[in-house]
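Lab meeting, item 3. Inverse folding demo.
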């Protein structure tokens, strides 16, 4: 059996209870060494065989899983954050399906949720934005033209940019060209929930300068939008004048 497990955003106690239990019973663990906190490996059994996928190809990962399966072993494939976000999991699922190997997925706390906690932010504020756009700047990995930063920026929704820390100059230009006013608040969260986490607040017009000055060019999220500002509407859900399925309005 193979379990794809979300490791969470960094802090070792942000893995789910299920994920930690699966790590505890794994005979083989393949972890994404570039981003998964290695301290998570302390949840494994003493005789667990550990592979770092940062140094492996997809073919090598599948080979390790195949060999473990042949011996009836349990494999955990440990991905950073939640596997569904830039996890390159689909290609693994499909290879395993072709080989008739069963697998399950255990979700994790994505770094964008970890970052929200660090920022004490709510991404979906009434009267500000009810939409969260998760995307990335185009780099060596292309992004479909219809999803360009400029096109997405036109919505002025809350935007969370993964994998873009080294591309801040173009990113800033595209955010502005797309329609975010230069004063729109931005937060850069480096290694959210790790012990070495750092948070920087700036504006769209000062994004590149801030990232260059602070020397942040990887393992960071760039969060853009007025949800980071001070103005918002009150939620209807908890408003005394609003009836819900559970509560009658009192005014
Ligand atoms: N599946 C992961 C994302 C993997 S893509 C998730 O759900 O979070 C790798 C990118 O995620 C990094 O380049 C960075 O932009 C972001 N990232 C991952 N962990 C992070 C963290 N703890 N803090 C800030 N950004 C992080």
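The presenter then showed the designed sequence:
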């Amino acid at each position: 059996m193979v379990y794809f497990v979300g490791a969470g955003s960094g802090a070792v106690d942000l893995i789910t209870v299920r994920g930690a239990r699966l790590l505890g019973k794994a005979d083989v663990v393949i972890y994404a060494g570039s981003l998964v906190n290695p301290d998570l490996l302390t949840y494994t059994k003493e005789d667990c065989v550990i592979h770092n996928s940062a140094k492996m190809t997809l073919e090598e990962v599948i080979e390790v899983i195949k060999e473990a399966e042949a011996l009836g072993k349990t494999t955990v494939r440990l991905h950073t954050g939640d596997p569904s976000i830039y996890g390159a999991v689909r290609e693994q699922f499909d290879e395993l399906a072709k080989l008739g190997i069963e697998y399950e997925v255990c979700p994790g706390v994505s770094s964008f949720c970890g970052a929200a906690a660090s920022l004490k932010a709510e991404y979906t504020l009434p009267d500000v934005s009810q939409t969260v756009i998760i995307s990335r700047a185009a780099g060596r990995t292309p992004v479909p033209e219809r999803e360009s930063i400029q096109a997405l920026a036109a919505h002025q929704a809350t935007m969370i940019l993964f994998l873009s820390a080294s591309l801040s100059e173009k990113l800033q230009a595209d955010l502005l060209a797309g329609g975010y006013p230069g004063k729109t608040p931005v937060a850069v969260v480096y290694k959210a929930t790790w012990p070495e986490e750092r948070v920087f607040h700036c504006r769209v017009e000062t994004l590149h300068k801030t990232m260059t000055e602070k020397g942040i060019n990887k393992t960071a999220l760039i969060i853009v939008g007025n949800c980071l500002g001070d103005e918002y509407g009150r939620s209807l859900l908890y408003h005394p004048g609003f009836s819900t399925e559970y509560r009658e309005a009192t005014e």
